[in-house]
Design goal:
Length: about 260
């Protein structure tokens, strides 16, 4: 049976992506539990209530981090906990679909587990109002059991989105690709002169590229979306076009 460590930010961190605290110390506070510790998993999420809704079958060791989700995962794996069998970022309230991956603190934390060679899961439920965590918790348990049966522990990163529904209301499970842009930003201005301030919000639904096979399509159809991710951001198909754009630039630049 697995045991659990939770290492999570001490405050709301939505939208911080993969940011790290590199120019200031990061404070950590141990949260009292009844003491039994282990090394089966680490949870590092973008909200302090990362373990909300999960069944507490075994005691946990918990740490509160005055930093980002990425900070939390790094501190867990490099100092507070050490080697683990599985890294879980979440369960986050609110979906992380499509281009939201670029700003998601949940996914931002998960990258740190993946680049360190661990099987890693970022997991979210599709609601910020009265979210249901039982379906996501049950899915994590099943995936963990599957992993425990496999002798190899090759690293992977899965972005999982579970509709905020009772398990019996889910219509299926899809292995998906990221959709397009799900939300656009709006800017609200307040104050005047030197007191002027701006509030940025991601509150304009866009839902571009939400066709079959995408994480957005799965969420829209009450299906669990599991999207494998990797770090290759290069756009190979654009190489010829960009070479044409830059034709002659090297000669002019270098004389």
């Amino acid at each position: 049976m697995g045991e659990l460590f939770i290492v999570a930010p001490d405050r709301e961190q939505s939208g911080v992506g993969a940011s790290l605290t590199l120019h200031a110390p990061v404070k950590v506070q141990s949260i009292a539990t009844d003491g039994r510790l282990g090394r089966a998993a680490v949870a590092a999420a973008d909200t302090p209530d990362a373990s909300a809704g999960a069944e507490t079958l075994h005691p946990v060791s918990a740490f509160s981090v005055e930093g980002t989700p990425g900070d939390s995962c790094i501190l867990a794996l490099e100092k507070l906990v050490g080697p683990v069998d599985l890294v879980v970022s979440g369960i986050n309230s609110g979906s992380n679909l499509g281009w939201d991956l670029l700003v998601s603190g949940t996914v931002g934390a998960a990258w740190q587990g993946y680049v360190r060679g661990y099987p890693t899961i970022a997991i979210s439920v599709g609601s910020v109002t009265n979210p249901r965590f039982d379906g996501a918790a049950a899915l994590l348990r099943l995936i963990g059991q599957k992993l425990a049966q496999r002798p190899e522990k090759e690293p992977f990163l899965l972005n999982v989105n579970v509709p905020s529904l009772a398990p019996e209301q889910l219509t299926g499970l899809e292995v998906t690709r990221p959709g397009g842009r799900s939300y656009g930003e709006s800017v609200r201005e307040e104050g005047t002169g030197h007191q002027k301030r701006y509030w940025i919000a991601r509150n304009r639904p866009v839902m571009a590229d939400n066709g079959a096979g995408t994480d957005m399509w799965a969420a829209k159809n009450n299906r669990i979306s599991i999207t494998p991710l990797h770090l290759n951001l290069g756009h190979q198909e654009q190489v010829g076009r960009i070479e044409g754009l830059l034709d002659g630039v090297a000669g002019e630049l270098l004389g």
